[in-house]
Amino acid sequence: MDVAVFWVLAVLAVVCGVMVFRFDSMARATFSLLASLLCVGGLVVLLGLDYLGIVIVLMMTIEMAIMAVFMVMYMMNPAGLMPMTMIHNKKGAAVVCGLVFALLAAGILLAPWPARRGRAPADPTMELGMSLMGPQMLTMMTLGMALFATIVATVVLATRRGRYDRFGDDLRARRADDPVRGGVGR
Amino acid sequence: MSLELFLLLAAALFSVGLFGALTQQSIVMLMMGLELMLGGVILAAAAAWHYIAPAASEGQVLIVVAVTAMALEMAIGFAVVTALFRSREIDMTDMAAELKE
To answer: Do B56 and A118 touch (CB under 8 A)?
Structure first.
């Protein structure tokens, strides 16, 4: 049963991954990528990491829904009603990717992989939690800081008017130059 | 199933994603290629954990790091696309060449 599930998910993951770059429609490309990454989540569950697999499935579903919105916002032809190509250097990239795959495959098939050591814990999720809250706490803290920095950076990048626009180049204006009055103290 | 099969699948996903990242002119499509590449990395890490060292929790931690990298890449990518589109009304990599300077 596991073998059948593996092959179905594996073939689907690769086919949907290839179709991402073949669809004319941006929306279809997004959902094709979603299907591919859902298969990756399913394969992670198949490997015994239920929690991480479900996290990947949930995260990718939301992420691709947001990506579809951005596609429709910024890109032409979101419905794919007419053929189009937005690619450059297709042949060169195909050669590079073929070489990369060949090198990786050669390494995978020729490397003397070590034998399996140890047994999987009864509850891998508990093991992950204990690790992140214990010996891997520094990793968890770094990830937390990276997420916080990302929140700040995305707001700064995406906002239309920053503090220099509102308070002048030297930030000495007494009142913010906002198109609509309001807010705290005004 | 074996470690090699999972790793070959991960390599295939990585290569397809690399093709997208190298060829796509649209920044959003380029990000989709990066997502596929990270999907391959996640699958390889999960397979390595399962087939080589299931007792070590570091393999799971590596997957958490890769999943977080996916989320950060997308959030920052969309913010950059928004800033680029707002300032120059472009969403293509070729038109953003002045970023090199």
So the answer is: yes
